[in-house]
Amino acid sequence: MFTPIHIPQVGITYKQPIGLFINNEYVKSKDGSLIDTFNPATGEKITSFYAAGTADIDEAVQAARNAYEDVWSKTTPSERSELLWKLASLVERDKKLLAAMETLDSGKPYHSNALGDLDQIISVTKYYAGVVQNLTQGKQIPVSHDKFAVTFEVPYGVVGQVVPWNYPLAMASWKMQGCLAAGNTIVIKPAENTSLSLLYFAQLFVEAGFPPGVVNIVPGHGAQAGTALAAHPDVDKVAFTGSTKVGQAVMEAAGKSNLKPVTLECGGKSPAVVFEDAEIEQAAEWCALGIFYNSGQNCTANSRIYVQESIYEKFLQEFKAQAAKAWKFGAKRDPFDEECTLGPVISEVQQKRVKSYIEHGVKEGLNIETLHELPADVKGFFVQPTFFTNVPQSSKLNREEIFGPVAVISTFKNESEALKLANDTNYGLASAVFTQNIGVATRFVRDIKAGTVWVNSSNDEEISVPFGGFKMSGIGRELGEAGLGSYLQTKSAHFNLSVSAHKL
Ligand SMILES: NC(=O)C1=CN([C@@H]2O[C@H](COP(=O)(O)OP(=O)(O)OC[C@H]3O[C@@H](n4cnc5c(N)ncnc54)[C@H](O)[C@@H]3O)[C@@H](O)[C@H]2O)C=CC1
Ligand code: BAL
Predict the structure, then answer these.
(1) Taking the complete model, does pTM exceed 0.90, yes or no?
(2) Active site located where (predicted)?
């Protein structure tokens, strides 16, 4: 159930679990099927791990159900808090190892990205360990002299979670820590191309003292394991992060099976709007980060940048300079190298997908600019940082989520046009506005249809602040107190104090 993996760049050799994690044990999948996982920076195979099928999902859900009914539902918030504190200290201990796994398996730069993901995971774990200690939700409602009611916030029970590959452990932690704190048990499916770190993380739950069955990790293909989880009649709630198309399928499966509630964090086509009075250097730096960080594989990436006409040329120059300086493959194109801030995209499929958008722009005769040449025989799934300029608003480059290091930069004349362009999308996850004018900024915050608005920054989310989308970007919220609330439901109890018979 374990295979040795050596990561020479950080001098680490460790034992990688390759089994499904059910009831605090690693087990083979029932049909023995495996998934190969690859290093996106080289294209080479790292290892294989077991893939869950429908029967394995049934077993994991049963384990989670037993753990919920027999043990976890009887724990107090402070007992759960204590386990989360222990978990946080174990993540701190193993931070470098976990970050190295993320880099190896997802290609994200170790120094600039993966270590930061781990810092966020430690923070989110401590945050929910703290928040749950103050879990005092619920109300007493006076109804009449002889009657009062009380509401309780109670867990759902067994929660199914499906997470993507762009932030493998971080997206899992955004979901799991709040869910456990609220008192639910979990069956979680990592993405097929980034399951290694979560499989390892499972051991930290055991070491921290989480009872068997509270956390179950079932890597597998979306169409089989993901569908089985979303459609399972004994799963009480499902939470998903990934594409909008799959989010719709998850919602449909949830509705058709047992009407389980869903939380969806889906795609985005987030605008950044730069007004002529903005600090241009600052705006360019944030906008470059907002599209090139994590090679653009962010649901909140500011992939549409709108700049006021009067500062357009100046902004472009500044954007190019800032982007070229900050976002680099590094001489060795090795995400473990300190110089590398721009890794490969996750897979050959994703590389082809992103490149097809670039080719579409070229075919349409749009102005294209690229940074940092790549050799023709480059190994690994690298994509050059790219931006297009004269792009019609109707172009698919402006309408579809590319999920790679590709931006569209366009102009606007005035405030009302800027808002109209920014809102012209089916998505509504995030947005950014750059201006020194408090009135312009505040009107933008009021009128933009997006779950997050950054004023004079971009993509710097905070774990204490709710995160989630409007429109086709999703349903529900993660992070912050809302991230705990997403895993609680209200129960109302009516208390009759009267001793006489009820009168109609
Ligand atoms: N919002 C976000 O953070 C993410 C958005 N995406 C978007 O999706 C595009 C395609 O990437 P994919 O890897 O194909 O994303 P995806 O949406 O297929 O994958 C995300 C997760 O959903 C699972 N999944 C796939 N089909 C499922 C189903 N029918 N039922 C339940 N779970 C299922 C996958 O196994 C994975 O764990 C990207 O180019 C990007 O636009 C992808 C990953 C993350
Ligand atoms: N920045 C984490 C959320 C996401 O982009 O998927």
Answers:
(1) yes
(2) 265
